[in-house]
Amino acid sequence: MGGPTAEVRQQMISTEARGNFYYGRRYYVNKTRFWGYLRKPGQPATSAKLVMFNESKRRQPDRFSENGSGNQKYGFDNNYEYKIYGYYTGKTVYEINSNQFLPEFMLTNYAVVSKDPGWLFSPRDSYDPNNITLRPHNSL
Fold first, then answer.
1. Which of 78, 83, 85, 84 shows the shortest CA–CA distance to 116?
2. Which residues contact 96 (CB under 8 A, 6 or more apart)?
3. Which whole number is the average pLDDT over 8-25?
4. Which range (42-46, 123-127, 134-138) has the least confidence?
5. CB contact at 8 A, 55 and 93
6. CB distance 37 to 96 below 8 Å
7. Which of 101, 98, 127, 93 is nearest to 32 (CA)?
8. Percentage of residues in the chain having pLDDT higher than 90
9. For the chain, what are the domain ranges?
């Protein structure tokens, strides 16, 4: 997936902007409906939570048809990094295609931070669009 060394990534996180938002990394896997991982500013990716967005206040960035093309296709923004604004609702949502119970996050706004941030949890990360391969772990 490319990106900086683990040491450089840790330095980047330690100096990133703080605020009333989350850093989100879009994680698209075919046929799933979770959005991706959210973490608080300054926290390592290993603290990130895979979430389901509640879009009743704001639609997620890639709310397009799965049959579209280019930037008009659901999941086009896989691995983009965002500033995500909103809050956890306290509800748990079942994502049927991955058989997971995930926290619900009420999305109120977002802004793109990077379209090519590299790996998410480890330089050894590998992405498979048909299987969930990216999960938090503590070893870099």
1. 78
2. 33
3. 93
4. 134-138
5. no
6. no
7. 98
8. 65
9. 6-114
Residue reference for tokens 């896997």: 29
Quick count: other Cβ atoms within 10 Å of Cβ 9?
A: 21
63 C-beta neighbours (distance < 10 Å), count = 10
CB 106 within 8 A of CB 87: yes
Whether the Cβ atoms of residue 104 and residue 52 lie closer than 8 Å to each other: yes
CATH 2.30.29 fits 6-114, yes or no: no
pLDDT in tens, 75-101: 889 999 999 999 999 999 999 999 999
User: Rounded distance, CA 18 to CA 98, Å?
Assistant: 32
Residue 75 and residue 67 in contact, taking contact as beta carbons nearer than 8 Å: no
Chain position carrying tokens 């603290």:
47
